[in-house]
Amino acid sequence: LLYDRKGCYSRLRALVPTLPRHGRVSKVELLQHVIDYIWDLQLALQRGPPRPVATGDTPEAPCIPAADRILCR
Questions:
Q1: Annotated Gene Ontology MF terms (predicted)?
Q2: Tens digits of pLDDT across the chain (73 residues)
Q3: Among 2, 18, 29, 58, which is disulfide-ready with 25 (CB 3.0 to 4.6 Å)?
């Protein structure tokens, strides 16, 4: 069981692009990066494909403020 869990954590490290590639990261930090990455993906799906930005347009504000997305920190 422990071997499988270590393999899952290794897989998560490889899949999450926001994870720092240098140094070690605790399991809690790894899981927080996974949660943040899932939130980012969800927001990207809700927004749909990017639209061209016309001159003078302001960028669209995210639905959920970044401070509210961080659940465990």
A1: DNA binding; protein dimerization activity
A2: 566 888 888 898 889 988 887 878 899 999 999 999 999 999 999 888 777 766 655 555 445 555 555 544 3
A3: 29
